[in-house]
Amino acid sequence: MENNRNDHHEEEHQPNSRKEMSRRQFLTYTLGGATAYMAAGAILPMIRFAADPILHKKTDGDYVKVAEVSKITNEPQEFSFELKQQDGWYPSTANLIAWIRKDETGNIYALSPICKHLGCTVGWNNNSNFPDEYHCPCHGARYTNVGKNLAVSPKPLDTYKVKIENGWVYLGATEPNTEVK
Ligand code: FES
């Protein structure tokens, strides 16, 4: 008799206990989910803000206004220009040089002065022993007016991407020289 009463007593409590557990779990999940949602709402904008300069990295499509088209001759001329750069969070300005010329049909080309041997700076017509050539003072590399490597250097000079707009020459990134056959 006594046993039966105890059994009955336990049976009465079991469903209650199960109900209590599931309510507690429900609250835990709900509060946990809401907290995670609020935390994500606060943290994601911070991550995005921090990563913003990286996301807006300089692209190949950036051009700099360098010279008037009317000033460009068949003889290569040296032009200096500034390139604003963003390295992560740090803005800086690079001072660059381009040797710009046009061919017989009026097409405009711009050469990088960085020697493809070990990176010194070449000049046009700067060695009387080798007239009408680019010459590198470091180890004597020589290039033709289109940048073709004649001595020492294993490769031709790089070219800048060129864009002509409203009578001005704009230069973009450097790329391997395709003018040299
Ligand atoms: S760096 Fe120009 S010849 Fe060596």
Automatic annotation (TrEMBL):
Keywords: 2Fe-2S, Disulfide bond, Electron transport, Iron, Iron-sulfur, Membrane, Metal-binding, Oxidoreductase, Transmembrane, Transmembrane helix, Transport
PROSITE patterns the record matches: RIESKE, TAT
Organism superkingdom: Bacteria
UniProt domain Rieske: residue ranges: 102-171
Keyword Transport: yes
Stretches for region Disordered: 1-22
GO molecular function, one term: 2 iron, 2 sulfur cluster binding
Residues annotated as transmembrane: 26-47
PANTHER family reported for this sequence: CYTOCHROME B-C1 COMPLEX SUBUNIT RIESKE, MITOCHONDRIAL
Task of the protein: Component of the menaquinol:cytochrome c reductase complex. The Rieske protein is a high potential 2Fe-2S protein.
Oligomer status and interactors: The main subunits of the menaquinol:cytochrome c complex are a Rieske-type iron-sulfur protein (QcrA), a cytochrome b (QcrB) and a cytochrome c (QcrC).
Family statement drawn from the similarity comment of this UniProt entry: Belongs to the Rieske iron-sulfur protein family.
Name of the protein in its database record: Menaquinol:cytochrome c reductase iron-sulfur subunit
Record organism: Paenibacillus glacialis
